[in-house]
Amino acid sequence: MLSILYTALPLLLALPFANAGPSSKRGGDDLVLSAWYAGWHATVGFPLSNVSWDKYTNLVYSFAITTPDVTKVSLNGSDGELLPQFVSEAHEHGIQAFAAIGGWGGAQYFSTAVASAENRTTFVKTIVDFAEEYHLDGINFDWEYPNVQGIGCNTLSPNDTANFLSFLQELRQDPVGANLVLSAATAITPFAGPDGSPSTNVSGFADVLDYIQVMNYDIWGPWSTAVGPNSPLNDTCAPAADRVGSAVSAVAAWTAAGIPKSQIVLGVASYGHSFSVPPTDAFVNGSKTELVAFPAFNASNQPLGDPWDDTGSVDACGVYEGPGGDWDFWGLIWGGFLTTEGKPAEGIYYRYDECSQTPYVYNETSEVMVSYDNVQSFAVKGTYIKETGLRGFAIWEAGGDYNDMLLDSIRSTIGI
């Protein structure tokens, strides 16, 4: 299985240091063709040699994480020794190299790092030193939930969003920070204000960030009340109770709050979530000719995903978490849900939801249903990016694809 050829990469934009990499202006309106590169997968199926460098404008190495010491960020757990090679190869191929700081389990100390003027100044130096040490062209801040408790043990303040903006403004005043490409991976709603609700005005971030990457995935998952689309393009056509967010609602929310469409990169997913669904709940009227939309599932029986899925471990907060149930696109082929052409395998039931523009597969024998993305849904997202005037796409994660099928699909409909 690990011999399977996966795909994809980079994420972000940037103006590099002198003699550090490809030449480009910071903050232009160049199209972003990007992906996150998970360092921990480099030795288990997706080495740098598998990257289709010429199909990206940039790639984001993930993750450096925050620490209790504001003077340090850590690459523990992300094969930090590979980062210099990652940067070197990106530059050799003429694309920009970035690093993401934070992530679901690595954003615990962002709030502390920007909480005071003294800390912000120190953290600016930390980021600048990190960028210079590794000759990075840009930084992706993956602090997804300012003033919202994410993983469960993040430091938190009602002033997180305001402090984050102040930090970025100070970073832009630094001679090095002024030339870095800066982006932020965000939720589908704007950063939370002091009351915990999405801010109605985040226009200040448009002045200091080159763009945001809206993570339009994990919208539905094992935590939800029913099986739903992991990465819905639209949900305005869904029943009212099932409208929990989509690319369309996210772009509307962020633009209303002051981020231009030209500074929004759409985050797209090369993976999906699995659910345990008995046949009695999976089929419309038991006919086995049509899968139910939003079926109930057995939350007490989380199916294991592909070999990259977490089989169960203690998270960054010291809490044990069971299997995630994640299936990468290559994993669905490895696991017998799809053929090597990305089509439903023999004996696998399939549904394509025209509202969310996402596919589902179902194995009646194992009673596993997976909401995921395929060539068709990536093509539709590419068309949406082009027609809406968004900045581009960013894939989580580069290694989740199979033979560049998803990557080639979205590039094609964007017009590359």
From TrEMBL:
Transmembrane spans: none
GO CC, any one term: extracellular region
GO terms, biological process: chitin catabolic process; polysaccharide catabolic process
Catalytic function, reaction form: Random endo-hydrolysis of N-acetyl-beta-D-glucosaminide (1->4)-beta-linkages in chitin and chitodextrins
UniProtKB keywords: Carbohydrate metabolism, Chitin degradation, Glycosidase, Hydrolase, Polysaccharide degradation, Signal
This protein's record includes keyword Transferase: no
Signal peptide: 1-20
One Pfam family per UniProt: Glyco_hydro_18
GO molecular function, one term: chitin binding
All copies of domain GH18, residue ranges: 31-416
Gene3D superfamilies hit by this protein: 3.10.50.10, Glycosidases
Similarity comment: family membership: Belongs to the glycosyl hydrolase 18 family.
Protein name, per record: Glycoside hydrolase family 18 protein
Protein's organism: Serpula lacrymans var. lacrymans (strain S7.9)
